[in-house]
Automatic annotation (TrEMBL):
Gene: ddl
Broad class of enzyme this protein falls into: ligase
Pathway where it operates: Cell wall biogenesis; peptidoglycan biosynthesis
Superkingdom assignment: Bacteria
Name the UniProt record assigns to this protein: D-alanine--D-alanine ligase
Organism for this UniProt entry: Cellulomonas iranensis
Subcellular location: Cytoplasm
Every ATP-grasp domain range: 113-319
Amino acid sequence: MAATEGRTPPDADAPTVAVLAGGLSHERDVSLRSGRRVAEALRSTGLEVTVHDVDPDLVPALSQLRPDVVWPLLHGAGGEDGSVRDVVRMLGLRVLGSDARASRVAWSKPVAKTVLARAGVATPEHVTLPQSLFRELGAAQVLDLVVGQLGLPLVVKPSRGGSALGVTLVTTRDALPGAMVECFSYTDTALVERAVTGTEVAVSVLDTGDGPFALPAVEVVTDGPYDYDARYSPGRTEYFAPARLDAATAADVAEVAVRAHRALGLRDVSRTDLVVDAAGVPWFLEVNVAPGMTETSLLPQAAEAAGHDLGRLYRALVDAVARR
């Protein structure tokens, strides 16, 4: 049978891949789009790819199929906290991406920031506040202490989570209680950090078998906060790939992203979000072990800016894992 136009004929000796997409997190729709895009790219190289949701059929399906590589493209809890990766490991299957232990460390923003600070990476000063603390000590007093310690502006974000859900930039003391309420609608613990102004960039790190390397930084410019709508609605955000950085600063942000990848024990793929201030200092914000792969996501933009064909690049990741 003739191959589909633009698609490499199936290779009987190539690894089989199971892509995991969906799940029940707030980022389900993004995950489904990521999974579909990656599956299409891998199939274009001749790989046999199946796509699975995270539901009661997943374990029986993986047990029967026994794919050579499982690629979790699950965002939010379950996909990035290591739990699904643990289940895949217990099935005796190879996972593309970080293992469960490293995923749990990276998933917790306060823990990841602490690890990176100890590794010599600049990260904004912050406090971590569980919702229960406000009931015990009184919200107003705690928030006054936060402003007194960190100043304004501040960024309030869930201590775990992605896609900027529950994240608020706070410029006045009066706006802080509302930001905390918004944050607590997604998690029971808030990370409040000093806002750093500058150029927002994201640096993706890949490892196709010869050690981690950084793709070009992608600069993010929005007409407001880089929130969920701005991330996934075409036209809300302008991207520059590569970022408009001088050569020295571009090298610095790449080095920070690779250092974060190594320090956190990550594997295969990650994306580090940074702000470069007016002095050219890159400030670490957070790292993602399952970066988005949608049509507006930053990793695919970076890969294309570097001249990579997405299908071949994703295939190289799969082949490296299959050999592991």
